[in-house]
Amino acid sequence: MNNIIIAIDGPAGAGKSTISKLISKKMGINYIDTGAMYRAITLKCICSNIDVKDEKSVIEICKNSDVDFRDNSIYLDGINVDGKIRTNEVSSNVSYVAKIKEVREILVKKQREIGLKSSVILDGRDVGTHIFPDTKNKFYLNASAEMRGKRRYKELIERGEHVSLNEVIKDVICRDEIDSNREFAPLVKADDAVEIDSTNMSIDEVVECIISKVKS
Ligand code: DC
Predict the structure, then answer these.
(1) Closest C-alpha to ligand 1, atom 20
(2) CA-nearest residue, atom 14 of ligand 1
(3) pTM score, two decimals?
(4) Which of 34, 102, 156, 161 has the highest CB neighbour number within 10 Å of its CB?
(5) 145 annotated among ligand-binding-site residues
(6) Residue 15, annotated ligand binder?
(7) Ligand 1 pocket, 61 CB below 6 A?
(8) For the chain, which domains are there?
(9) Where is the protein localized (predicted)?
(10) How would you list the strands of the sheet with 67-70, edge to edge?
């Protein structure tokens, strides 16, 4: 049987990673959080005091980094950075890193290599449009900006961060803007993607909806 590739794209806070993790467990397939790779590079820039708008330096950092997944966890230069990449500081800087063409080329190459090894679900912004444009299984997960901001806010508060709801909603909208308007592989729904608006749906409903539509 051919490997299945499921692409889940959509804006920040649409629930992509929660949904993708559950589907990966239910279907017994691997999960690749492509955004985590951009976050890992952003984390390294912050820790190295590199301005994320200094493209040359960010590209150097990316070329000299080892970003990989093991057991669905993200490793940066051999160290598990699952927790460290989710801070508000990383979130508000990551879009600047993700819009750099050379960074995208390096990480997309890696995403394709990992994705071709076995059946897999990947979430991100360009999985169905750019990384695996030939897959039959493309989904575009969306929700209102207010709902997406509320979800991100809840996550950050649970992690002990001090943020305001308004600040998080603003940040989500700002990221949408940068991700949708960048030159290389912008956030856009693939013509053949199934769009799901999760604003008023439970997590389980979204999971079941996607699994029922997956073609092998
Ligand atoms: O899904 P996330 O919030 O963890 O993604 C972090 C950032 O990375 C987001 O602002 C957009 C970018 N990204 C991207 O450009 N392409 C991807 N395939 C995944 C994420």
Answers:
(1) 35
(2) 125
(3) 0.93
(4) 34
(5) no
(6) yes
(7) no
(8) 5-205 (3.40.50.300)
(9) Cytoplasm
(10) 67-70, 73-76, 79-80
